Amino acid sequence: MNRAELISAVSDATALPHEQVDATLRAVLDQIVAATAAGQKITLTGFGSFQPMDRSARAGRNPATGEALQIPATRSVSFKAGATYKAQVAASLPAAKNKKGSGAKAATAAKKPAAKKAAAGTKSAAKKKSSTKK
């Protein structure tokens, strides 16, 4: 969902005009940005919290050349989802995807050894054919 779709959905849910919802959303986001830029933590109970996070300078390496370089200190924003928000997102997933260890990764991991064995079997069969031709 992008900004226009969000404005339209809120407008439909509240029966407010698009212009009013757009102005309200713009004001809310501007206040969140201003507060976090000033170093304040914003907590929206049930939804989550925005908090400025300082990252210290550190040594890094250019992956292309391997050259060592200095990465400067920066400030970014971290978002931590609230309990209510997390619960609603988790409840919207099918039960099989909700459990750790199940899903596509577990199925792929189980298939890998079988694929290797099959590939090894074809290599040995090819060697047998070539040795019988001599």
Furnish the topology, listing elements before pairings.
Elements: H1 3-14, H2 18-37, E1 42-44, E2 48-55, E3 58-61, E4 68-71, E5 74-81, H3 83-91, H4 95-98, H5 104-133
Antiparallel strand pairs: 1-2, 2-5, 3-4
Helix pairs in contact: 1-2
Helix share, percent: 55-70%
Question: What does the radius of gyration come to?
Answer: 27 Å
Strand content: 15-25%
Largest sheet: 3 strands, antiparallel
By CATH, the superfamily of the largest domain comes out as: IHF-like DNA-binding proteins
Strand order in space, largest sheet = 1-2-5
The second-level CATH architecture of the largest domain is Irregular
Mean pLDDT: 82
Number of helices: 5
Give helix and strand order, one letter per element, not per position: HHEEEEEHHH
CATH topology of the largest domain: HU Protein, Chain A
Number of domains: 3
Low-confidence stretches: none
Give the termini separation: 66 Å
Helix-and-strand structural type: alpha+beta
Bulk shape:
elongated
Classified by CATH, the class of the largest domain is Few Secondary Structures
Number of E strands: 5
Question: Can you walk me through this structure?
Answer:
The chain has 134 residues and is α+β, with helices and mostly antiparallel strands. The chain folds into 3 domains: 1-40; 42-92, IHF-like DNA-binding proteins (HU Protein, Chain A, Irregular); 101-134. The chain contains 5 helices and 5 strands. The strands form 2 sheets. Strands 1-2-5 form a 3-stranded antiparallel β-sheet. The protein has a two-stranded antiparallel ribbon with strand order 3-4. The mean pLDDT is 82.
